[in-house]
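Reproducibility note. Readers wishing to regenerate the assembly model reported in the main text can use the exact inputs given here. Chain order matters: entities are listed in the order in which they were concatenated for prediction.
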Amino acid sequence: MSALEVRDLRKAYGAVEAVAGISFTVEQGEVFGLLGPNGAGKTTTVEILEGYRSRDGGEVTVLGVDPAHGGSALRERIGVVLQTSELPAALTVREVHRMFAGYYERPRDIDEVIGLVGLEEKAGARVKTLSGGQKRRLDLGIALVGDPELIFLDEPTTGFDPAARRGAWELVRSLRALGKTILLTTHYLDEAQQLADRVAVIREGLIVNIGSPADLIGVAPTVEIRYREAGRDVVIETDEPTRVLAGLTGAAVAAGRELESLEVVRPSLEDVYLDLIDGESDEAP
Amino acid sequence: MRLFRHEVRTQQLLFWRNKESAVFVFVFPPLLYLLLGAVYSGRIGGFPAADALLVGLVGYGCANTAFAGLAITLVIRREGGVLKRMRATPLPPATYLAAVLTSTLFIFVLQLLVTMTLGVVLYGASGPRNWLGLGCAVLLGVAAFAGLGFGAAALIRSSEGASAVVNLIVLPMAFLSGSFGPTRGYPAFLQAISDVLPLTYLIRILRVVYLGGGSFWSQPRGIVIVLAWGVVGLLIASRRFGWEPRER
Ligand SMILES: Nc1ncnc2c1ncn2[C@@H]1O[C@H](COP(=O)(O)OP(=O)(O)OP(=O)(O)O)[C@@H](O)[C@H]1O
Ligand SMILES: [Mg+2]
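Running the prediction on these inputs yields the following structure tokens for the assembly.
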């Protein structure tokens, strides 16, 4: 049984089609990324899977059951980091963990979880005194305290400093090593590339591409060769850079010219991503 | 049951840890009793002033704890997204609400004991003449005002406005119902309003059982009116209450 099955999911808010028919499957133990710009429909999709929102159409199963009717039995098995949420400001980090641990049949050890998310030093601090990134780590800890099989992370690292982001990545990898299934959303291609086994790129409620990060970069256009000639920038796009370059440099050497500012550029991850969400992906090879 | 006990404990921790609301909800009514008890003397409505005020402020305390305090807390938790986050846990909503109600009852009973002790020790007020009747009246009051509290929480849209809206209802209601002193001199239209308010009847019932030693069940009309208000609140809540922040 797959951990998540989504078939032709649709959801509109009035005239806004937030999710316009998307399908994907996430296997047990897989880390799956939803990547897309603001307003693409990531949160809407995730919150339907979490059981918060109703859907207008399509089939959805989460751990084999319909999340709209999953009840406590399903919630026992999932962990959730919402895009935004608050926790009781007057409690300490440890008290909030204890509060949430009490809702589950078999919670993890509280101090262990606090350690996992790197809040040992703040265990006795009130929630209201935490920084933004520390609050986010608390959200992550609370999502893990019930020892879930399936974890939803909606932009889990937004607001993290680079070190904390690395820490969170390590945490996701260690959860994956424990066999947990993870659905995460992100704006960052590098995060998706670092963490996800497969990524779905979504734009305006539709999946524009789906595959392993390597596949996604594989659809990238070709290499660019750039140089200056007679005061003008020349850009050649090619998927045979060696041959083109040999021709160019051969001709230049023969003519005793220098190819000014010559460079060979592979499109960066950002370029690939921006291309995908730009609507140009339709024409991509 | 394990979940219920855990949640009642959590609610207690949350209540006492939040100093501002604990002072407003728990300390304010007994404090007001101390002040008014020092100001009034003689008789109010045929009872010694200290006795009448004691019962009046217990009534006000009930509305303040179960209606005002509860509604404000729920709105703040909802708007901040705490309720939404809790919905993702296996805690069933019914268990959560039952725990909130139980915790509220516990706080109010504690407050009642404090007010009573102050009255008896400082102002020579009488103790309850009918303990069982008092217990029934407390249950009735907390249930009805909590019902109204859930209803109000469902209607209020923002945390900022919650405390203003709720106090705009509770304080005038307490005045009109005679929590803070005699209502005999009030003009007829105020008396007319007073005659439909739940707190008026709760205080009447409290006078009968606490001061008169009469039976709780001797006040069927009052019981029905108080309960009816609670049911109205619950109906509003069942139609309008949501766990997620209101879209703004
Ligand atoms: N409750 C709502 N009511 C009305 N419209 C909504 C609601 N929630 C989302 N939308 C709209 O649906 C679309 C998708 O929103 P969603 O929150 O799913 O995007 P997202 O991919 O999570 O974006 P972000 O990266 O900014 O978090 C947006 O156009 C948004 O304005
Ligand atoms: Mg989002």
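We highlight two features of this model. The pocket of adenosine-5'-triphosphate (ligand 1) is lined by residues A 13, 16, 18, 36, 38-44, 83; B 247 (CB under 6 Å). The mean pLDDT of chain B is 94.
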